[in-house]
Amino acid sequence: MTDQQRLQKATRNLFFFTGGEFIGTIGAHIYMFGISFFVLTLTGSASSFALTFLCSMVPRIILAPIAGHIVDRLPRKQVVVTSHALMTATMLLVFIYTLSFGLSLPVIYITAVLIAIFATFAGIGLTASVASFVDGARIQRAISLTQSSNSLASILGPVLGGVMYGFLSIEMFFLIHAIAYATALICEININFSLYKKESTSQDEEGQKDEPLLASLKAGAVYVKGHRVLLPIMLVALWVNFFFMAAVVGLPYVIIEVLGATSNQLGLVESMIGLGTLALSVYLSTRKEFQKPIRTMRFGMISIGFLFALLALPLLIPMGSPAFIAYYMAVNFLFGAAMIIINTPIQVLMQKTTPEHYRGRVFGLLEMVASGISPIGLILFGFLYDIASPALIILITAGLLIAVTVMGLRPSKVDDEAAEEVAEEKAVKIAEA
């Protein structure tokens, strides 16, 4: 196969990858809107509503490392396609069941757990495969296009879900979700997962495929621990994710409870995050790859800290309703853009510096760490907002977020030169093989 033919196939892969992600994500958002509204209407209970999200969150935290092990051991296309086929089958079976016996909370919770389990394997399998089906020069474009399609889906999904809820029965949401998954499955079947895959040549790489689960997970953790670029980035990302929960909890509390805005105004403010991520993702998909990814990440994380501090301004300086809503909309738009400035270089760097046979476990570990810290942050900051001044919590958290970034990603500890050296070392090993 010539280089030109391979590039054409990579373009085809990119089309199916982005299209599958968009359709699957918009289906998921439509489904979650319908099910969430149904649970609230049926029970009127916030705890029942929260339990639905908990059923979707806990399996990801527990199974992410195991999924990483499986992804590194088995053909990734097989893992992804099988997982999405099981997700499609689950939704179809639940649709048929609800037509006969009706929908109940246990069915919703069991469905959420099953979908979360299969989605963990599918998500890590796809993420770990990007560098294998897209050429290195377009990895950033692939990630940016995926993020932009996910952002667009997160904006359109609830809107379409709201319209459909008024016209369709709740059972139809399961069918729509099944159709979305089936479409994503067809897209994934058409992706060549081994187009740029580097075959295992050393005995160590081949031997790792036969390692027991615990030994494999330990090897992945040891690899990350000894990596001079990935470890500091993952540790800082962990703390940034933790402190960001203060904004997730605090913004709705401040807007609704403290400033007295309406739920419609809150929805308008929160939608701006999706617009910010969409705008910058589309922009980055047309730009060349970041030349200084570490510096870019550092800038993005510090920007998040300053933007978070700005959330306290309407609490310190009185503003009227139109003014503080417009203000928070602008800040949230910048929040969304800053998140892309952080996420895109992190993912590109991980794709380019992580060997093929470790990539599943590395992304699985990142998924576990990022997802696992979120519930802790939600609980802690939810408690703090009930007993302390929101403005004080916001300002202290913003200061801690900036301090963690400055200390954890200081140039003396990790810099772009180190990242380039790691990428070059990986390229040399591949060339020697």
From TrEMBL:
SUPFAM superfamilies documented for this protein:
MFS general substrate transporter
Mark the transmembrane ranges: 14-40, 46-67, 79-101, 107-131, 152-168, 174-193, 229-256, 268-286, 298-317, 323-342, 362-385, 391-409
- Domain Major facilitator superfamily (MFS) profile per the UniProt entry, residue ranges: 13-414
The name of this protein is MFS transporter
CDD domains linked to this entry: MFS_MefA_like (cd06173)
A Pfam cross-reference name: MFS_1
Task: Note the PROSITE patterns from the entry.
Answer: MFS (PS50850)
Keywords of this entry = Cell membrane, Membrane, Transmembrane, Transmembrane helix, Transport
Q: What is its main location?
A: membrane
Does the keyword field hold Transmembrane helix? Answer: yes
Its annotated compartments are:
Cell membrane
The protein's topology relative to the membrane is: Multi-pass membrane protein
